[in-house]
Design goal:
By secondary structure, this protein is α/β, with parallel strands linked by helices. The chain contains 14 helices and 25 strands. The strands form seven sheets. The protein has a four-stranded mixed beta sheet with strand order 23-24-1-25. Strands 2-16-18-17 form a four-stranded mixed beta sheet. The chain has a four-stranded mixed beta sheet with strand order 5-6-4-15, covered by helices on one side. β8 and β9 form a beta hairpin. α4 packs parallel to α6 and α10 packs parallel to α12. The two termini are about 15 Å apart. About 55% of the residues are buried. The mean pLDDT is about 95. The structure holds uridine-diphosphate-N-acetylglucosamine. Uridine-diphosphate-N-acetylglucosamine (UD1) binds next to α1, α5 and α6.
Length: about 425
Amino acid sequence: MKETLIIEGGTPLFGRVRASGAKNAGLVLMAASIMADGETILDNLPRIRDVEVMIDILNSINVDTCWKDDGSLSIHPPAGGINKQTSYELAKQLRASNLFLGAMLGREKEAIISLPGGCDIGSRPMDLHIKGIQALGAEVAIEHGYIYARAKNASGARVYLDFPSVGATENIMMMAAMTPGQSIIENAAKEPEIVDLANFLNSMGGRIRGAGTDIIKIEGVQQLKACRYAIIPDRIEAGTYMVAAAISGGEVIVENIIPTHLHPIVAKIQETGAYVREVEGGLLVRASDKILPIDIKTLPYPGFPTDMQSQMMALLCLGEGSSVIVENVFENRFQIVDELKRMGASIKVEGHTAVVKGVKTLYGARVKATDLRAGAALVLAGLAAQGETIIENATHIFRGYENIRQKLTNLGAKVR
Ligand code: UD1
């Protein structure tokens, strides 16, 4: 299905918007739910396309799911065990499908995982995931596009990650949670979503310490018990609406946030001149008369998130001077540049660095969302642009933003 978002730019946004539950926490918790006996209930899970695909994967491996009237999702693995193989057709739609690797190895000691798809933002290999599960004793073979892994004699071990990969940390943590003995992940990812996964596993009876630091210690347990759990708010979605306020010349309160998770984003938005203040129930963002040019380097948490890089680029396109953006996490995350140029932006890319020379005005144009966050950035550019912006491939945007059209409309934007 081809989907399109059309934005009539030039209206400052005002009002309140509520951040949904975090996509990246929700997806990994959905995978981890198969490790528990009984019915898990997840609250605050966003109703987005990626979550729908994850539900399809759960159903395809014999796990029952059901949206409840209160908006929560029930996930119930069968007592007799799950189907231990994810299909190519579903896995190619979603990078996070790889998270069944650790979850299945933990519970079933066996997994056959189709090499995953997802946003086309770089090569996204799985070497660190595989190195980690092998250190814990998994036997791994990669054949015909599938990872075959068995962990019959696995035991706790020390794993050093060459790079603090979010997915690798999560997969190793899930496997280790049900692998006998103590495992230690060194140079682990420190993202809030990692902490949420540890809290979730601990609520099910897991024994994990140190999540949120670069050393995570895990004592394997034999059994995990289902629980009810509320997912953290989405810091990237919140950040996107903060930029929406700043780029449109408006004033918005973003509700349902955890302020510390937003520090790296707030710091950079403030540097551009916007006024940001914690208020009861959220963060207020007020645009300034002029957008100041700034430099950004993306880094693992608590550095500036790569998932906010494109949105900040859109803002800096209207800066009063030149900004430099260095992308250190994914090698292919500047595809948005050509789309922003269609709207009148002036950007030069060399390797991992983009130099954004601010222009006075962006103009509405027909553009294409090349990935999820690029799509979000085009929405932001469209809000500030003169005239109509037509965003093709908007499906990418709906993968990660719950009710984006409605939320923006409530703030006064003209979106259809
Ligand atoms: C997760 C997020 C994604 C975010 C990213 C970085 C989910 C579902 N997605 O993706 O939104 O942009 O973290 O914050 O949570 N790498 C390797 N070998 C590996 C694994 C990763 O070289 O085995 C490299 C990747 O190519 C990339 C970098 O490490 O350059 C970061 O990847 P990683 O942290 O693993 O991101 P994801 O878990 O895929």
